[in-house]
Structures are given as C-alpha cells and as structure tokens.
Design a protein that fits this description.
The protein is built from 11 helices and 15 strands. By secondary structure, it is of the alpha/beta class. About 5% of the residues have low confidence. Bound molecules: threonylcarbamoyladenylate (TXA) and magnesium ion. Threonylcarbamoyladenylate binds next to β5 and β6.
Length: about 325
C-alpha cells in the first residue's frame, strides 16, 4: 500500500517526503490541476524507466516534463516568440508546449523518447512548489495503467497503482479533470497536438492566429485501426446515445429526458447547467463510477464540440475505439 499525505494538512511533510522519494529515483502520485501524475526525476534514467514499467507504457511515447516556472523551462528548452507568449499567458496552467530541447539540458532521452524536442508544462499549485524545492524537472504522465482511465483523485491512483508505488500526495479532486492541451509551434504556425484542459479558442485569442488541427478525429474513426484505444473503462462505450437500455449506464450532459433512463443501471449528469468545464472535471470519475455498476455498456449523450467539449469528445472517441 502506498503512503498517502494530505498536502493541505501537511504541506511541508509532503514536500520533504516527496523530495526524498524522488531523490531515490522512485515515482510518486502527484496531484495537478489537470489529472494526477505519476512523477519522477526527468534527469534520472532509472526513475523514468520505473514510470514506464509502473504504467505498462510503451517507451516510444514521450513524457511531459513539468517545471516550476517559465525561467526554469528556459533552462531546458528554446522558446520561439509565440510559445513564450503562450507560456506567459497560461502558465501555470493546463497547457503543454512542445519545444526544441537544449542539447545540454540534462533531461534524459528516455523521458523524451529520444526526440530533439520536449513537452513542457508548468502545473498550478502544489506540484509547482514541489518542483521548485526539488529543483529538477519532473516527468509525469497521468497516474494510471496505460490505456485505462486517467486518475483525477488520490483514491483513483491508489486503486490502480497503489501496489506499485510507495507515495501518493493527496490534494482532493483535480479541478480541470482532463489532461493539458498540447501545442507545438513550427515555422510560426501553431499545431494542436492534443485538445485538453485549455480551450483552443483561448490559445487562438492570445496568439491572434488559428491553431491547426490534425486530421479530424472523425476521419480517424473511419480508419479504426489507426486509432489506439485509450481511456478505456471495462465496459464498452457508446456515443451520441438518444436512448439507454436496462443493461447500460448513462452519462448525460444536461439532457434529462433520455428514454429508458428509469431502467438504466446508473444515470449520471456531467453538468446539470450544461457547463463544459464542470463536465470535464466530472468526466473520468463518472466513467469509473459507471464502470463500477457492472454495466455492459456506458452510453453517453451528445456533448457539443466547443470549448472544453473538444477535449471531452477526443477522450470519449478514444474510449469508444475498438480495443486490442
Ligand atoms: O495534464 C497533463 O498533461 C498530464 C499531467 C500529469 O500533467 N500529463 C499527461 O502526460 O497527460 P502524458 O504522458 O499522458 O501525455 C504526454 C503526451 C504524449 O502522449 C505525447 O503525445 C505528448 O505528450 N508529447 C510529449 N512530449 C512530446 C514531444 N516531444 N513531441 C510531441 N508530443 C509530445
Ligand atoms: Mg495518460
């Protein structure tokens, strides 16, 4: 069983114990505003190897390196003017920037999967304070078994990885609830590599230019083999449901009159007021709760693709993708 430390009750103990565990090269469960991370010293190859092993994650998938602030980030990566503007506007916060790595950065190639770029994020709150105290970047993917639903509470981390790690810091529920938005600036153009907890429209407003999307995810669904299953609960996932049957759990978005609701195994409303930020914060917890009913399928009602809806729909499409 992993030790839990409540960061609100015992902030200094949390920093001291976490710094000691990280210095030993062991990963810890770390709360951030997006999701809980499985964090380890990004300069220590043994520590990074333990992240991949603990998650069962393929090593060709690079990790995000977390910094305490922009000044620290500039020691490890080279900022173009647009990336710097975005960092100044949105850090600390749910934005990851992919940037050229400084050759002498000290970040181990295992963390970047050998790329000459690095994904950097400055998280809000306690995680930033811990990094400032530890004074090294922390590589941290979401704290869940690879392919499963991301963890948004210390209990989620414990249920999934508690047997495999020694320390989980507890800051309650993650307020954003979906992973960071990932942006890469190339030749003065911004590319959206992953929709996430910062709405694309916010980024476009600050940069004064459009974010280029990858090919639409709907196109990927037409070629299902191309789309890795991810964020997968035990149950199957059905999207844009307009009804629900008795062996299903329903997760709806402010749509109260879905036929069959009275017989469903569970009915959970992501946001009664139709607020997409609230929906994002509830998403992964509700998926776990719906899954725990033993439902054969989790049915989701339609969620608009605007604001944080873009990130929610991205995660739901992956959850619904064919499994291996
Ligand atoms: O909110 C978050 O981003 C959470 C919390 C813990 O900070 N972290 C997270 O990390 O979601 P992870 O490892 O699950 O997502 C990392 C993704 C990779 O799948 C990859 O797509 C992208 O970030 N990435 C990282 N480094 C990259 C690079 N150098 N070039 C392109 N993509 C990169
Ligand atoms: Mg993840």
């Amino acid at each position: 069983m992993a030790r839990h430390i409540d960061i609100l009750e015992h902030p200094q103990t949390a920093i001291d114990v976490a710094s000691g565990t990280l210095a030993e090269g062991l990963p810890i469960g770390l709360p951030t505003e997006t999701v809980y991370g499985l964090a380890a010293d990004a300069t220590n190859p043994a520590a990074i190897t333990r992240i991949y092993e603990t998650k069962g994650r393929p090593r060709f998938n690079p990790l995000i390196c977390h910094m305490s602030d922009l000044a620290m980030a500039e020691r490890y990566a080279v900022f173009d003017p647009i990336s710097r503007k975005l960092a100044e506007a949105f850090w600390p916060g749910p934005l990851t920037l992919v940037l050229p790595l400084r050759p002498d950065s000290g970040i181990h190639p295992l963390a970047t999967a050998g790329l000459d770029t690095v994904g950097i994020r400055v998280p809000q709150g306690f995680a930033g304070e811990l990094i400032r105290a530890f004074d090294r970047p922390l590589a941290a993917p979401s704290a869940n078994t690879s392919g499963k639903i991301s963890a948004t509470s210390a209990d989620h981390v414990d249920d999934d990885l508690g047997e495999r790690i020694t320390l989980i810091l507890d800051a309650g529920a993650s307020v954003v609830g979906v992973e960071s938005t990932i942006v890469k600036v190339e030749n003065g153009e911004m590319r959206l590599l992953r929709p996430g907890g910062l709405a694309a429209s916010e980024i476009e407003r600050v940069a004064g230019k459009p974010l280029k999307r990858k090919k639409k995810a709907s196109a990927a669904i037409e070629a299902p083999g191309m789309m890795a299953s991810h964020y997968a609960p035990g149950a199957a996932v059905r999207l844009d449901a307009t009804d629900v049957s008795a062996n299903e759990a329903l997760i709806r978005f402010g749509t109260p009159d879905i036929p069959g609701s009275e017989n469903a195994l569970a009915v959970l409303d992501l946001s009664a007021s139709g607020d997409l930020s609230e929906a994002a914060a509830n998403l992964f917890d509700f998926m776990k709760r719906a899954d725990a009913t033993g439902a054969a399928t989790i049915a989701f009602s339609h969620i608009p693709d605007e604001g944080l809806g873009e990130a929610i729909n991205d995660r739901l499409r992956r959850a619904a993708a064919p499994r291996e």
